[in-house]
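Record 1 of the preview.
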Amino acid sequence: MELGSVVGVVLVLLGTIVALILKGLSPMYLFSIPAAIMIVIVCATGATMLSFKMKDTTGVFKAIMKVFLPGAEIDKADGIRTIVDFAGKARRDGILALEAEIGKVEEPFLKKGLQMAIDGVDPEAVEEVLRTDIKAMKARHKIGSDWCMTMGVFSPTFGIIGAVFGLIATMSHLNDVKLLAQGISAAFVATFWGVFMANGLMLPFSNKLKRYSGDETQYREMLLEGVLAIQAGKNPRVVEETLLSYLPPADREGFSSGGA
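->
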């Protein structure tokens, strides 16, 4: 479970509920106008689906779950150790000596790159294949983040439409001050749901997915650089110093003192 996502959602909900109570309103009042919730959630979802293919929508729920359950954290330091170790063996015994070690590699992207290098594929071709892989991955990730962002754009608009509908209905009660006040209050519930869905959930989801994609992209670019360095027969120490730039300064010192 990603702690930042959980804490973020809790703070959004807590801030909203406490603010309502301080204003003398019951949080349940927001759920007492089903039409407001329907026009925001249903219509915004429909408009978003209209903007994407069906398979994009069915896959976005898995992407949203990744906001809270991202899986195993990327370990760049471990990747660097693996590459530096392979660089040493390739420089000492030749790159073909890695054939016996490649089965131990769990990262598919790194394994693909190393296998092509062992097979004698030109470095330019290796780089092209791996960069195409990275580009395709970024395109897949972009669908989920764009879907959430689009939902975040549409939600406030339908919230305003819901408020307009509420105000139109309220105009029929101009002679009843009490009903008029209740109608105006209820009309703005739709506006709340639209803004809340956008800024409290969907846009943050989009930003989080972009962050995950950026981290994985940087990790794969690091592995790509490592594969090309191994293929070029570079000194393991030079490879290590080059790849350490992908780590935060604090982690670099720890790696240097206990690394490969």
